[in-house]
Amino acid sequence: MQSLTTAGTVIAMAFSSAFAASPRINPERQNELVHLVRQDCGSCHGMLLRGGLGPALTPETLKDKPADSLVSTILHGRPGTAMPPWKNLLSESEADWIVDRLQKGFPDAR
Question: For the chain, where are the alpha helices, taking DSSP H only?
Answer without folding.
Answer: 2-21, 27-36, 42-45, 59-62, 67-76, 92-104
